[in-house]
């Protein structure tokens, strides 16, 4: 897709920084398996929430990246990207509430983009990556300080895929003084709904939310005999998404391995089966959604260098909406990388993951001006 508007431009990164970053990425690809072992984290947040996460790289690395996955996915979404990034970064990938191994939200809660943004903020606080933020009265709130450490301004970067990209945009706009870089894969702001759809969406949300709260979930959740059978269900689900989307069996297996739990098979007899662990309420509509004007305001408030990687057969980007989002960004901040192939899971599919690595790795490791 050709460049469109002042906010979108293809620029060459500074030569020295790129050479260093590419060298780091080359070492990463050649490193023996396990050089940076994956860690399983359980983040005890000060809000009382507990969030599961995966981590790669040295916890003392100067470049810190919080990775946010897509709808009904989990932290394993970054299994292809994070090990390479780990040679220069500390990467922490969350299981958002209701996904992966994180607990489901309370019956009174919704899985909105704003609630997910709060959970990500909660995780940043638990990690000690937040600096004190002045409130409206000019006082610091003291959040995010652990072991007496005070992170410097713009202390972390955000990496988001799909829904996670929308959440990352919300955080970057709300914390402009803290987010160093913003890397987006197939997700450029939250999904928008037209204002005239509000009443119907509210009605549907109230009905389904009440049914879930009273135990009227409907048919029993499907079970699968094997991991491959569960992965095949993910592959088939990707084909039903808008456009010509697809997911490789390898990518689906990675997501299914973290996103399923063992249960008793139907019919008894002691047999075991698998079912997906995500909360079925993720499929319910939220009572409220963003209007496009609000999303444009969010993007205009982003003040850090931003990279958007999008695949040829990824999520549809209809005009004029996509161009308006691009133009909403502050001049010179946005770099768009159009992959000649791939689909919505380009960062995890075997045939395109390396191309996403080559774009995002140097971008996240590049030194900032000044």
UniProtKB/TrEMBL annotation:
Q: Coiled coil: which residue ranges? A: none
Q: AB hydrolase-1 domain location, by residue?
A: 65-351
Report a single Gene Ontology molecular function.
hydrolase activity
**Where would you find the membrane-spanning parts of this chain?**
none
Q: Which UniProt keywords apply?
A: Hydrolase
**The keyword Cell membrane is assigned to this record:** no
Checking InterPro entries in the record gives: AB_hydrolase_1, AB_hydrolase_fold, AB_hydrolase_sf
GO cellular component term of the entry, any? membrane
The superkingdom of the source organism is Eukaryota
Keyword Hydrolase set for record: yes
The entry assigns this protein to a family as follows: Belongs to the AB hydrolase superfamily.
What's the protein name? AB hydrolase-1 domain-containing protein
Species whose genome carries this gene = Diacronema lutheri (Unicellular marine alga)
